[in-house]
Amino acid sequence: MDAPFLIGERIYLRPLDVDDLDRCLRWINDPEILSTLGRREPMGRAAEKEWLEGQYKSDRHMNLAIVVADGDRHIGNCGFNAIDYVNRNAIFGILIGDKDAWGQGYGPEAARLILKYGFEELGLHRIGLEAYSHNARALRAYEKAGFIHEGTLRESYFRHGTFHDTIVMSILASEWSNE
Ligand SMILES: CC(C)(COP(=O)(O)OP(=O)(O)OC[C@H]1O[C@@H](n2cnc3c(N)ncnc32)[C@H](O)[C@@H]1OP(=O)(O)O)[C@@H](O)C(=O)NCCC(=O)NCCS
User: Fold this and answer.
1) Cβ-Cβ contacts under 8 Å for 143 (sequence gap 6 or more)
2) Ligand 1 centroid vs 57 CA: distance in angstroms?
């Protein structure tokens, strides 16, 4: 295992490194993946490098590499953005870029590892996220990880020539269970 930070059953989460840069760049610019995210613009190498290097310079965000332990295969990234230590909130984000790894439950497993860290180590009270109604895989994965659908911003997201809903989900510390 390469520098594990949070260890699960089949995966572990480790800090991102410059060696991960090209892989992350490929994932973030994949049109199928980009269509699930809030951003639309392609990402250049310089911007991706800046993003990666910024991850551990501030305690307001923390993104980690998701690695399948069997073979030490880096399949994606997940973490917290906009950590707010006054209101004890954070925004969760995940991207599994290796499409062969989709649909195997790695997303919910990674989410639960980072939720545990957020609630038990960072003392967070609420962890939220936004996803889009056309991304049924993500909505199901979030539900499996314990997130609850709390609201719908109707037709707020324009993609592929049509409007989609933005789905707001969250999990509170009181709802967190590591069973
Ligand atoms: C979204 C993502 C994190 C989910 O992780 P994952 O490891 O693939 O998730 P899972 O293995 O739990 O599979 C997703 C679930 O959705 C279901 N699913 C897949 N496609 C579906 C569809 N079109 N409609 C309904 N359910 C669907 C699967 O059957 C599975 O549920 P099940 O275990 O009850 O059968 C991952 O696929 C990913 O990163 N995708 C690309 C980027 C992205 O969408 N990021 C999120 C942006 S908000």
Assistant:
1) 149, 169
2) 31
